[in-house]
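Listing S7. Sequence submitted for prediction.
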Amino acid sequence: MKILVANLGSTSFKYRLFDLPQETQLARGGIDRIGQAASACFVEIGGRREESNQPVPDHAAAVRICLDQLMHPEWGCLKSADEVSGIGFKAVFAGKLSGVRIVDEPLLKKMEELSDIAPAHNPMYARAMRQLRSAFPQIPLVAALETAFHETIPDANRCYAVPYEWKADYEVCRWGYHGASHRYLATRMAQLLGKNDLRLITCHLGGSNSLCAISGGRSLANTLGMSPQSGLPHNNRVGDFDPFALPVLMRATGKSLEQILQELSSQSGLLGLSGLSQDVRDLEQAAAQGHARAKLALDVFISSIRQYLGAYLTILGGADAIVFSGGIGENSRLVRSGVCAGMEWAGIVLDESLNQSAKGEARISSAAGKTQIWVVPTNEEIVVARQAVEAVKGIV
């Protein structure tokens, strides 16, 4: 069964084509600058890369171009678009309509209704899904909600200390996100260590960041709460923040609530603290040259990770392994070293030489520690592909 997994941005469309159950990646590609005069397109099939520039007005047109690429008579990997059994999306938030779902009108309306919770994700996904349902009615669309993996979080770790009716009636609680990534890491670590009853703390660190406490493959806590703007600091989003600061800021600046929320979700995080960049690579370089606010941003980021790490060690009663993933987790030696510093009391001992040389999947802990430390590149797309197959099978 061939599944196309789509990763959408407001002006981009990236995809991978998998053949299941073998889990073979047949192709990958993408289109940038959708809706602009000239969009950049690429596709990679069997080691061959093709690039082009052409106008792409919307995401439906992007999928048509994608299918044309995959069906190219000389180097394509499909004979017909009918070979695509479904299109899977790493959708973000639909409240109680969580899990893995065939895209329908109730789901789309719910995503649109909750767009203010995930403003960087829900609007574009709902819009693109509507376009694709209209353009390709014969291909099932599957939404794998990021909250699905966290449905096992107990109420003690899920509920805010607010009037209970807010959760029951308005769905206000800690939903958790990055579910596909944390699910993949849990599955992969079980394979690497040969055990299914692992206590794991998985650290998905990139443009958006979260830690997850996992026991036996089940999520028990996630740093992201009601919205993806919460938890750890993100590249340009705030992370944890006291809502009672809002009226202070509104009075002092004369800005509306909407304007303040916009700044919290687009001008805060590492960017806001440093005043320089939202990219950890830039911040590490600047901090090494004496840029005080770049160093502050990194220090706040690392400190926040450590605080949640300590909390999750308590929830799990210790950890068999700590896993770093995502663009920062896989590549920032400084962040990994800072997070693990002085953690010998918890059996967490980093081998700095292994940390410096780590590439791809790698164990970076010292033999002197009881808790293993790993770097594992995540693969959210294969998780979505697996989930899409099961959803499509349910309607065939």
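Caption to Listing S7: primary sequence and predicted structure tokens for the chain studied. The domain at 2-145 is CATH 3.30.420.40 (Nucleotidyltransferase; domain 5). The chain has two domains: 2-145, 193-375.
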